[in-house]
Design brief:
26% of the residues lie in helices and 29% in strands. The termini are far apart. Bound molecules: calcium ion (CA).
């Protein structure tokens, strides 16, 4: 009995003590609902064996909630940053690639110009030595070919042979066929483009006499106004060559046009267009990557093959369009290349290929003929030289050339908006003569001029522009 009483007393005493130190705690739970909690210190335990209780649980819940929120926020932000960073990196890479591409193009162009500069310096030195040599040689007695009072016409522009012109040695050299009439060629004697322009002003233009025949193979009578078909969109297309196969071979039709942009250190792309409309719109239906690099603007198409000069070599290549492979390759004997004997505009135009009614031709020069134009007719299958002609036209004195019906025509200037076709050499007679048929360089930098047999027009690449010219040919002479 005493024991029970003592126990009750202790309980009351303890309760009273506990009530003195009881505390009320109020706060929101995890869902935001207000909760009241009473706390009473333990009468026997100095500390809890483990943490817990509603307050800690509430804190834990809040902490978890915050952690989730922070994780979501930080995770989302990180994703956004990473996306933006990836996009920026991609744009930077693209810009870098573009800049590198342009740098490579410019590098290629710089190398080409340096090469041309070297060639020009070499030629200047040769001319200086030649001038020196001629100065030291006594002049033979001579009479002027034309009294100064007479009007200047064609061959009347001829300078006296043996004069002090640095080109005099070229004037006195007969061609291989012993043709001396070519010596009367003013283009040969006066190679500078400036003089050719002067000549253009004073030489009579042969007037059409109503005898032209557009189906025959007579001499060129006149060239029409340039018609622009397409402008290249980037620097690679400042110079180029565009072509049409006069005897197209399946799978390509006769209306197909082909184009090569020739600026760059790795010129290999051949673009094919279904027809003129697609070319004008700039929508190629075929792009071929050639196995060898192309040098300059002298390429041509014939019977299903692209013919071109391999870069930095005198090697001619026949590339079969149908099988997309090289069908023949052969060196053009002794031909200058890579700036040795270019046209006056440079551009490594050492070897110019052409197609006309009589087949495939190469226009070039050699060391032996000291820069004069050599014309060779080629076997279109094997690329072997069938026959050659040496003219008296200095190759670097003319802007370009084209062949129609076995006759080579040269253009005086590549920049003058109004220039002339100043010379014709006929392979049938091995005779040449000066002429002055008006010709326009509408865009003032003509890097390619060729006869297009399929349309009987001239095709040209004038300062980014692909242009064509109508032609009028005279009636063929009866021999
Ligand atoms: Ca040409």
């Amino acid at each position: 009995m005493f024991f029970l009483l003592s126990l009750c007393m202790c309980g009351l005493l303890l309760r009273g003590d506990a009530q003195d130190r009881a505390a009320l705690w109020r706060g929101n739970d995890r869902s935001g609902r207000c909760q009241y909690t009473f706390t009473v210190p333990s009468p026997v335990e100095a500390s809890c064996p483990q943490t817990g209780g509603p307050e800690v649980e509430g804190l834990k819940a809040r902490l978890s909630l915050l952690e989730v929120l922070v994780s979501q926020l930080s995770g989302g932000d990180t994703g956004g940053h990473q996306g933006a960073r990836a996009r920026a990196q991609s744009e930077l890479q693209e810009a870098l690639n573009r800049v590198m591409g342009e740098r490579n193009l410019l590098q290629g162009e710089k190398e080409r110009l340096e090469g041309e500069l070297e060639g020009l310096q070499r030629r200047m030195e040769e001319m200086r030595r030649e001038t020196e040599r001629l100065r030291n040689r006594p002049c033979p007695p001579q009479t002027p070919a034309v009294p100064p009072s007479l009007p200047l016409q064609g061959s009347a522009l001829m300078r006296p042979a043996g004069g002090s012109s640095p080109m005099s040695h070229l004037m006195t050299r007969p061609n291989r066929q012993g043709d001396s009439s070519g010596l009367r060629d003013s283009a040969w004697q006066h190679g500078s483009p400036g003089f050719q322009e002067l000549k253009a002003e004073v030489t009579e233009v042969p007037a059409p006499d109503g005898s032209e025949d557009n189906t025959g193979c007579g001499e060129l009578v006149s060239v029409g106004e340039p018609v622009t078909h397409r402008k290249a969109d980037n620097i690679e297309g400042k110079y180029g060559v565009w072509m049409q196969d006069p005897e197209a071979v399946s799978p390509y039709g006769p209306n197909m046009f082909w184009r090569i942009d020739t600026i760059g250190s790795d010129v290999r792309k051949l673009f094919g267009y279904e027809d003129m409309e697609q070319l004008s719109k700039g929508f190629p239906s075929k792009v071929l990557l050639l196995p060898e690099q192309v040098e300059s603007t002298g390429a041509t198409l014939y019977r299903g093959s692209l013919y071109f000069q391999r870069r930095r070599s005198r090697t001619l290549i026949r590339y079969d369009l149908a099988s997309e492979s090289i069908a023949a390759r052969r060196d053009l004997p002794h031909a200058g290349f890579h700036g040795q004997f270019p046209y006056s505009w440079g551009g490594y135009t050492d070897i110019d290929l052409a197609v006309d009614e009589q087949g495939l031709w190469a226009v070039y020069s050699t060391v032996k003929v000291r820069g004069a134009i050599v014309i060779s007719q080629l076997d279109p299958y094997s690329l072997e030289v069938k026959k050659s002609w040496e003219t008296n036209i200095r190759k670097n004195s003319v802007a370009n050339s084209f062949i129609i019906c076995g006759k080579l025509y040269t253009v005086a200037s590549y920049t003058a908006p109004d220039t002339v076709i100043n010379y014709m050499y006929d392979t049938e007679t091995s005779q040449g003569k000066a002429m002055a048929i008006p010709f326009k360089n509408k865009h003032r930098y003509n890097s390619m001029i060729d006869y297009n047999l399929a349309q009987r027009k001239l095709f040209a690449w004038d300062n980014f522009h692909m242009v064509s010219y109508d032609l009028r040919l005279g009636r063929q002479q009866a021999n």
